[in-house]
Amino acid sequence: MFKNSKLFFWTIEILSAVALIWLLANVSFIFKPVTTLFSMVFLPFIIAGFLYYVFNPLVSFLHRKFKLPSIWGIVLVFVLIIGICAYTVIALVPNVITQLSSLINASGNVFPELQKWLEQLSKNPAFSEIDFKAIITKANISYMDILKNLLSGVTLSVSNVVNIISKVAMVLVLVPVLLFYMLKDGKSMLPFLKKTVLKTDRLNIVGLLNDMNATISKFISGAAIDCLFIFVTVFIAYLIIGIPYAFLFAAFAAVTNLIPYLGPYIGLIPVVLTVTFDHPVKALIAIVVVLTLQQIDGNIVYPRVVGNAVQVHPVTIIVLMLVVGSLYGLVGMLIAVPFYSLAKEIVKFLWRLWENHKQSRLVSDENETQISK
């Protein structure tokens, strides 16, 4: 009875997530050389794979709806990508650089404004027991430390510059080639494996690969559409409200929206820190608008565009966000849910194998009993 209950299901799901995170945290020294090689050599594969899952539905739609040959659909996708990149370089990059420079200059006023606010707050009798001077001193040290770390982080040697240029060149050369062949031959990959390597697929490995491919495809393509929706709506809302650096803040909100539940709140942090002291009313309106959009997105848009691809309970997601975020930061929070979804498919596959094995042993034992009689 307990085995078939929802409590059992949620307990196993959460324990599996915690066990997976514990394993990655404690054997990280084993995976470190692999991850280093992976980040250097297979970065183009990661980017091309992401773009494949984003644009493959478009190629399939053009072929299915307009009977457009796949090769022409791929050409159209490449024209679209080149157009987006050209527009980004010509129109958006100068604007982004200008906004980023202004934002960096404006960020210098945040600490003095915070200091004035704390000094005014210290005069209130209700907060007489709080040592605001110590808080200000500590914040000043932290602020200066952050600036020093940022400045030291952007200081690049010649070898680092050469390394970065070589990586960028490798990505720019390999990603289009890999993406072309993925879009062209991606659908035939599993049938090819079934005819060759997995010709005697007794364990149904092809079925597992199909499930994993469907899961990651729905998640990435749906998440990309959802991020685009958030970016456009937040950008328009910020322009109407009059929020400065609207493009940067909207882009940050779209990226952080990939983090379930916590993402929208993280996306609001730069707006609150930058706008609150000078324009508190605008900051309040921006918070209300973004949280309203998040409710629309979380209850209507996200479930429809992503569907049931993830199928992870909210409690499990919260546990993943808290634990993985503390271990691996923002990047870990971004990949936690899709990685766990893939791991979950593998666990379900192994569980089915175990169930089939037990069933076959049970049938074999029954046959042996009947023969002995």
UniProtKB/TrEMBL annotation:
Main location: membrane
The entry's keywords: Cell membrane, Membrane, Transmembrane, Transmembrane helix, Transport
GO biological process: transmembrane transport
Locations listed in the record: Cell membrane
GO CC aspect terms: plasma membrane
Keyword Cell cycle carried by entry: no
Keyword Iron-sulfur in annotation: no
Protein's membrane topology: Multi-pass membrane protein
Residues making up the signal peptide according to the UniProt record: none
Annotated transmembrane regions: 7-31, 37-59, 71-93, 164-183, 227-252, 258-277, 284-305, 317-343
InterPro entries linked: AI-2E-like
Entry similarity comment: Belongs to the autoinducer-2 exporter (AI-2E) (TC 2.A.86) family.
PANTHER family registered for this protein in UniProt: PERMEASE PERM-RELATED, TRANSMEMBRANE PROTEIN
Protein name per UniProt: AI-2E family transporter
Lineage per the UniProt record: Bacteria, Bacillati, Bacillota, Bacilli, Lactobacillales
Gene it is expressed from: ysiB
